[in-house]
Amino acid sequence: VFAASAIQEYKLDNGLKVLVQEDHRSPVVVSQVWYRAGSIDEVNGKTGVAHVLEHMMFKGTSKVPSGQFSRLIAAAGGKENAVTSTDYTCYFQQLEKSHLPLALELEADRMANLKLTKEEFDKEIKVVMEERRWRTDDKPQSLVNEAFQGVAYRAHPYSRPVVGFMNDLENMTYEDAREWYNNWYAPNNATLVVVGDVKAQDVYQLAQQYFGKLKPKVLPARKPQVEPAQIGERNIIVKAPARQSYLLMGYHVPAIVDPENDWEPYALEVLSGVLSGNSAARLNQKLVRETQLAVDVSAGYDLMSRGRLALFELDGTPSEGKSVAELKAALLAQIEKVKVNGVTEEELNRVKAGVIAADVYQRDSMFYQAMQIGTVESIGFSWKILDNYSAKLRAVTSEQVQAVAKKYLLQDNLTVAILDPQPMDSNVKPQGKPHVH
């Protein structure tokens, strides 16, 4: 399915993995450095530190002063940013191909030589607090999602927000950020992904030149952290100023563990597509168009996670005059229908065609190709499983979709979060501000 040639894989002596996909359609290159370190690796009292360090990575080294990284990329006509998730932290640049050495030189420099000062940290932690207010505290649906994750997961770090709890941010020190950097930022905990109008061998030489001299580290031991089985429905109500109520519910389901032999995650992926994902999908058809019970409604599932855990989620906003209870009942009724009757051949074909088409379109984007490769590798699988994705989905049968619904979408395995809208005060200003990185 790849529009471009096969991926070339290299490993430097210090453990850095280098993955290159040649794509010669335009003179552009996407360069990404992925660290296998995200909020899943955090400990209580230091939530949010992975994301805080992502901000600090732009604060300079002895060679490149604070703020200069972004300026140099911009001066070369490039775009850059970073993202922190539960499972990884990724730093990326998109440039005209002749500027790839600049990106690699800058990334190698900050992988090993970051200057973490108390002054810069004290300024930046305030920015992160603003971001938490802006993205979570000011947004009722975000508050519901945060509460939902915290109730669906009891023991696992996925229960905690990536941005961190405010109290942890207020008490975080630059030593905490430095400890995170020293623990996890090492070539043997990183993957360099390059996609674009380049020769794989040249990229390998550049990686060798810039990253080759960096020293590997002994990484901290990671605990398995298994989530105990849920033994009864869990419910949570969040009260916040909002115009409309909102419902978010989810079931514990498997993620991919054995890419060769697992079929359940692919069946769940297809079920998610049958229920939601385009206007003809069941939830939209039944709950929005026919009964007008909901303004919007969707289903979601992500089959890959480093914790090897996943949730099958359903969410929606009830229409004016309709209650959350009615919406919940209607969603559960849709799940029951699948358990009793399975899904039609026509639905299966539509979802498979849609997912495969989306996959093809996304592969048309160099940036997206790089994101796919980096995500799969950071989660602990080989990029090679991307090639089997379409075939695995095509193999899913109606019986398999019905089987996973019956096995996992059970009331005792369900967590329900409800937004109970409180009156809104038009005089209250948002607490937070948006940010750049």
Terminus-to-terminus distance:
33 Å
The coarse overall form would be: globular
Q: What multimeric state do the chains show? A: single chain
Structural class: alpha+beta
Please give the share of residues in helix: 40-55%
Radius of gyration: 23 Å
Compile the SSE list and pairings:
Blueprint: E1 7-11, E2 17-22, E3 28-35, H1 49-56, H2 68-75, E4 79-84, E5 89-96, H3 100-112, H4 118-137, H5 140-152, H6 166-170, H7 174-184, E6 190-196, H8 200-211, E7 234-241, E8 246-254, H9 264-275, H10 282-290, E9 294-300, E10 309-318, H11 324-341, H12 345-363, H13 366-378, H14 385-394, H15 398-408, E11 414-422
Helix pairs in contact: 1-4, 1-7, 3-8, 9-15, 11-15
Textual characterization of the structure:
By secondary structure, the chain is α+β, with helices and mostly antiparallel strands. The protein has 15 helices and eleven strands. Helix 1 crosses helix 4 (118-137) and helix 1 crosses helix 7 (174-184). The chain starts with 6 loop residues before the first strand and ends in a 15-residue tail after the last strand.
